[in-house]
Amino acid sequence: MAPHLRTCRSAVVAAVTAALLAPIPATAAEASTRQSPALCTAVRDRALASRMSHDIREALSDRTGSVSVSVHDTRTGLVCGLANRRRYDAASVAKVLMMEAALRRSQDRRRELTGLERGRIRPMITASDNNAAWRLWNDLGHPYLSRFLRRVGTTATTLGSGGYWGLTRTTAADQLRLLGVLTGARDVLEPGARAYGLRQMADVRRDQRWGVPAGMPRGIRAHLKNGWLPRATHGWRVHSIGAFTGGGRTYRIVVLTHDNPSMAYGVRTVERVAQAVHRGLNKGRAVGQGLTPESEISEVPDGSAPTEGEDGESTA
Q: Among 17, 112, 169, 194, fewest CB within 10 Å belongs to which?
């Protein structure tokens, strides 16, 4: 090859290499980010919605498994949804549905909760007691629970069969609606009943307070319920739902997951999403609860259904 041709070729190669290695301009990077569908919207704070969409994606960027997220904040109107119509076995988060249905039934009958109802609801929520849940599930019955779901406006939640409330199929969008019953977003329960339900969820015992409270700032109160159940298909289901009050705002976070190799892995996935949401909604505030140490995460299932069974339904 002639010397002048070799010189031209070297110059071209050098120019291409320099272009490939050069940093991407900020405007180009932002344009690339905008190509991904937004997870969040907020009429009153579009910048927050953009940041939250990015931060939730970033929190999940190196996680495996299936994850669904629903978020709503009353102050900014923020709404986030990631695969929030994917269906999961509810595991013990179904106990919130049972509590709300019992509260609505007492309202329908124009009476207070009975001593038996109170004696079942509190341990079922605060300690995830399965005997209490089984008794309340049978007492309410499928017909009443189904009517309650229709009243709330759920679109994809179906009750578990054979007495297994943990095999109730649900979505993150429906769980957000059910949390809205307690925060007053849906006109289903009277204020006293909502306050009672939130109080039970605020009193969940310490070893079950992992999940969506992670990253919560000081001065905010968490009202939560978790579910954790391994099955023959889709591995560990690890779910966490919660309503957060204080500081002049109320917001709800739902994170449902399955295909987790362990409970600890699922808990960490949930908590990374929760951290991103709390940080975005409470910018500059000191964190009151961090990530749950793995040494404090039990791998014992919540007992809401047999662990060896099959799902029998697609979750696409």
A: 17
Residue 164 lies in a domain: yes
CATH of the domain at 113: 3.40.710.10
* Distance from C-alpha of 148 to C-alpha of 126, rounded to nearest angstrom: 22
Q: What is the pLDDT of residues 250-289, one digit of tens each?
A: 999 999 999 999 999 999 999 999 999 999 999 988 899 9
Residue 68 burial class via C-beta count within 10 angstroms: exposed 0-12, middle 13-18, buried 19 and up: buried
Residues 279, 215, 54, 185, Cα dihedral to 10°: -80
- Give how many domains the chain has, as a whole number: 1
Higher pLDDT, 40 or 23: 40
302 occurs within a structural domain: no
CB 271 within 8 A of CB 210: yes
Of the ranges 12-16, 77-81, 283-287, 309-313, which is most confident?
77-81
Average pLDDT over residues 51-72: 97
Q: What is the pLDDT of residues 220-250, one digit of tens each?
A: 999 999 999 999 999 999 999 999 999 889 9
Residue 115 region by backbone torsions, left for phi larger than 0, else alpha for psi between -120 and 50, else beta? alpha
CA distances from 180 to 14, 89, 114, 277, 284 (A): 60, 20, 24, 18, 27
Contact 175, 252 (CB under 8 A): no
314 in a domain, yes or no?
Answer: no
Strands 169-170 and 88-89: antiparallel
Q: Is the pTM of this model over 0.90?
A: no
Closest among 93, 95, 113, 94 to 103, alpha carbons compared:
113
Range of the domain at 247: 40-296
